[in-house]
Amino acid sequence: MTHTAANAEESAIAEPAQAAVTPAIINSTGAGEDHPPTIAIIIDDMGNYQNMGERAIRIPAPLTLSFLPFRPHTNSQARLAYAAGKEIMLHIPMENVKRIPLGASGLTSDMSSQNMVATFRQAIKAIPYVSGVNNHMGSALTQNRAAMNLVMGELQGYPLYFVDSRTTASSVAHAVAANHAIPTLNRDVFLDHVITTKAIDFQFKRLLDIARKKGTAIAIGHPHRETIEYLEKVLPSLGEQGVAIATIKGLWAIRNNAQDMFQTTPPTILAERRKGNDDEPKKSVN
């Protein structure tokens, strides 16, 4: 599979057999003070690809799957993934410095504040069982503090976390999310910036090294055949290496002493969303 322009944007600063061994798993309620090095893996760009998407869903590990809104397989695969015990995210397209087209629900700096909030809201509602959000591309918009304040101002009303994909070292998305009291984390490793088994293996070992040094680490990959086949092979025996795997919620719980994400900042109920947005002045976020 070739290296796509979108992958380049998302990786701009990255770099009838025997029974399988079940990987060590940590969930969002069972994380205690003592835990092994723990990784979380987000698979981005879900919803575009039927075969590879379904294979990702079938991997016997608690992956977190991030779905692009309004794509051919988003709704059906998100429901399948949830039934299979996967955690579901919205992969929201954001403006990038290379001007790669974003498709449906893209957020750009030339939108009015009203349009940006409405577009983001529609994208959130389009993902069944959504638990969190991360940016698709976004090397331009995540540097724009005004835009991030609009995005996080909307997101803080939902029981959703945010993961900064870190497509630029200049991103302010994580900091702005934290300022809005949104549970937020950063990506540590891109698994498939280069789509070869050798490169993916190198990045996966980097991920494990970071987890061993820091306790936890987050990787982002994509539903490429090479990535999915690699994860199908290595994840079942992960526990033999003394490493656990968790969803993003599970990993957050480890970092925060098993505290519930929304214990101290209860989210606004969706039915009670702010009603004044239709009256907001139309202005650019440039």
From TrEMBL:
InterPro entries: Divergent_DAC, Glyco_hydro/deAcase_b/a-brl. CDD domains: CE4_DAC2. Residues 265-286 are annotated as: Disordered. GO terms for biological process: carbohydrate metabolic process. It comes from the Bacteria. Residues 271-286 have a biased composition (Basic and acidic residues). Pfam families: Polysacc_deac_2. This is Uncharacterized protein conserved in bacteria. It comes from Hahella chejuensis (strain KCTC 2396).
